[in-house]
Design goal:
single chain; 12 helices; mainly alpha; about 50% helix; 2 strands; about 210 residues
């Protein structure tokens, strides 16, 4: 009640995700990378052992969740930001045992890890599967439209593409996931459950959909 001026702010945080008034998530990415890098350094400092299995478990338990929380919302499309996030895992894995001389790709294979970029892509596809199969309390028609015409390529549950006006809109979850979903084999999108879909997606090569 009464006259009062509302403050003008340029940065917001909602449910743990930060963004500015242009719906840009750069500040969020910088924040989580700084926090995750600090926690990764703390693990390496606290553990005398350089056992690969032990350190990998510690990283996956205490560091990786910081870099993946709500990634469906803020997933970056800029190469620099993708590399910035990946640097946390790249640097950490280089400190394990005798892996310093191995390339990052080789280290991931040895440690049985996906790149963080690949994990975000899989998170997108799992979310898409849940929405399309009515496993979330939301109306799937508000997010996706089924492709009406038949096609011999891809799968039988293809999604229709929509026109986007900007690069920002192009990277929005419901737009960026369509091409990848449509390229998945039919047995995968027709998985009988989320757990089955996760198992199948883990066996699928998604490298051609990664930006680097």
């Amino acid at each position: 009640v009464g006259a009062c001026s509302l403050p003008i702010v340029s940065l917001f945080t909602d449910l743990g995700v930060s963004y500015d008034n242009h719906l840009n998530f750069k500040s969020h990415i910088s924040r989580i990378v700084k926090k995750a890098a600090g926690r990764a350094k703390c693990i390496l400092k606290c553990f005398v052992s350089r056992d690969k299995l032990l350190l990998t478990r510690a990283f996956c338990t205490f560091v990786r969740p910081l870099l993946e929380f709500s990634s469906v919302i803020w997933c970056p499309d800029c190469i620099n930001e993708i590399k910035k996030i990946e640097t946390v895992q790249r640097t950490f894995t280089k400190s394990m045992g005798n892996l310093r001389l191995s390339t990052y790709s080789e280290r991931l294979v040895i440690l049985n890890l996906d790149s963080l970029q690949c994990r975000r892509l899989k998170a997108d596809l799992v979310m898409c599967y849940k929405i399309l199969n009515g496993l979330l309390d939301i109306d799937s028609s508000c997010f996706f439209k089924r492709q009406l015409y038949a096609s011999t390529r891809g799968n039988s549950l293809k999604l229709a593409k929509i026109h986007v006006a900007s690069e920002r809109d192009k990277n929005f979850f419901t737009n960026r996931v369509i091409n990848i979903w449509n390229a998945l084999p039919d047995f995968l999108v027709s998985s009988s459950s989320v757990s089955s879909f996760r198992r199948n997606i883990a066996l699928t090569d998604l490298s051609k959909h990664l930006l680097f």
